[in-house]
Structure formats: C-alpha cells, structure tokens
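Ticket #4471: structure export looks truncated?
Reporter: QA, pipeline team
Priority: medium

Steps to reproduce: submit the single chain below to the structure queue and open the exported record.
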Amino acid sequence: MKYVAVLAVGLAFSLAACAPAAGPVQAGADAMPPTLFVANKRGNTLSKVDLAKGEEVLRLPSCTNPHELATSPDGRQVALACYGGTSVDIFRTDSLARVASIDLGENARPHGIVWHPNGNLYATAEGRRSVFWIRDPLSETRALFEYGTGKDGSHMLAVSPDARTAWTTDLGSRTVTRIDLVTRRAPMSVTVGEEPEGIALSPDGKTLWVSARGSNQAFALDPQTMEVRETIPTGRFPLRIAVRPQGDVAVTSDLQDGSLSVIDTASAKVIRTIAVSSPEETEARFQVTILWSDDGNRIYVAETASDTVAEVDYASGAVLRRLKVGNGGDGMAILP
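Actual output as written to the record:
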C-alpha cells in the first residue's frame, strides 16, 4: 500500500473575524460555563448548550450534513467535519461565528476529527480514502498533509498522545488501519469484526478500543502490532465506543437496544448495561454518538431521531435530563 503525502500551503482560507491565537483559557470575560456543542446533521446547524442551565443557548447554520466535532486546546474554537462537502470548518465557541473553512479537496467527505493538544487538527476524508493532518489550522500559512488508507469508508479516527500515529475504522473494508504520521511507513490494516466504526485510544495509549456495529462486538487491540487482544460481546449495533477519562471502563452506544454496554478495561468484560431509552422509545430516539464529561461523571448520548441529548449519570445509570438541540443532533464536543 502506497503512502500518499500532499502538502498544500494556503489551500484553505480564513474568513473574516479570525479567532485569536491559541493560548490558555482565560478567566473572567473569556471564561465559559460547561458547554456542549452538537452538530445537527439534518438541520445543517451547530448548537451550543449551556450545561449549567440545561438549555440550548445558540443555534446557527453550519454546513451540509455536519458530523463530528472537536474543540481546540484553548477552548476558543470548535472544528466541524462537513460530511456532506469537502471542508473542515472552524467556529468560535463564544459566538459560533465561522472563522475558517479548510478545503480538503474533491470528494473529501470529512467525518472523524481530532483537535490534538499540540494544536493541530486531524480528520478522515472518507471519500478520498485518506486521513489529513492539518498543521496550524488557524494560521494563514497552515499546511495540509494527506495519508492514504487504501480502504473503503475510513470513518472515525484516533490519534496518539505524541501525534506520531493515527488509527481509522474502515467501515466498508471491515478493517482498522494504523497510519504512521512521521516515518511515512506504509499503513497497516487488520480485519476487525463486521462494520467496525467506533474507535478510542485508552488514556495511557496502550490499548486501542474498537466497536463493530455489524457483529455486536467490541475489541481491544495492541495499537502498534494491531493484534486483537480481546473480543467482547456487547449490545446490538454498538455504533460508538468511548473510554472514560479515568481509563477504567469503555462504553459502547448500542443503537438497537437503546442502551450502553459498560466494559471493564482490565478484565475486558461487560460489567453493566445502562438503559438510556425503553424498548418502546429506542427507534424514536435513535442514539448515536456518546461523549464523557471531563470528570467522567456524566455520559452524553446524542439521540438523533428525537433531536435530544440524554445526560446520563454514570454512577447510577439514571438519565438526569434530555437537552433539546437541532434537527438530527449527532457529533458532539464539550468544554468542561
């Protein structure tokens, strides 16, 4: 498999009202309450939810069929993968004003996205069967590097803490692919279940967790050798997987059951099932993306069909409230 690299300086453009340079989140005027951002894929909008108030405080147009979101390390911007188009768009977190639109090229269809602590963005380009590294995304001299996966449906994305490695789930090819972002070695792909989609790296970087929605399974992989260490049965159609910040559990979003499977990461066994919706509500709510709060006490579950986000207390498993968002809420990002 051939490595593909494309460097383009100035390929993307910055729009008016560019965001300030990256830096620590400031107290006082720049400080924000705990905030959830939601990409509404059917409404083509972006929602901002004040978690202290428990209500949506702003909703503005975004792009066609927006999906995954990622907040900047300084908390001042949120990046959006425009799955219905070719760009990664960046918005201010305070006003949702668009400050940049970064075009990834013909038929890109960006989906998975990570805004790394190093300040760089990483995104899948499903239509191009590739992954992009966007260096200095808010700079006028930003640079884009493209890495081919050679696989169909490169969808979701994880990036190592040192930003040397990225991993994708390739829905159409039934594989997980490891991409070396630095040494430019050829990608390594392994078959993992049926329709692998969810992906998450453990906080210590030692285990890659994958959920395969077509086979109702989760997998623990060695991130470097790509060996499958453990195979865990889950609920039905585990669309996403997310590891708690503490690293003790991984949770899958089981769409057809309306539940969450809680996997103990040490034993690689399901230890709890959390019901988010009743059997009668499952199709009406259609849960998709899941996201942990920064302290690991809450799980946010995007319910795409009912235009809500369920806030779940991890300790008790209770649904504390349902937050109203736009039409087809899916991708989420959070500011603590």
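Status: closed, not a bug. The export was complete when the record was re-opened. Leaving a note from the reviewer for reference: Residues 282-285 form the longest helix (4 residues).
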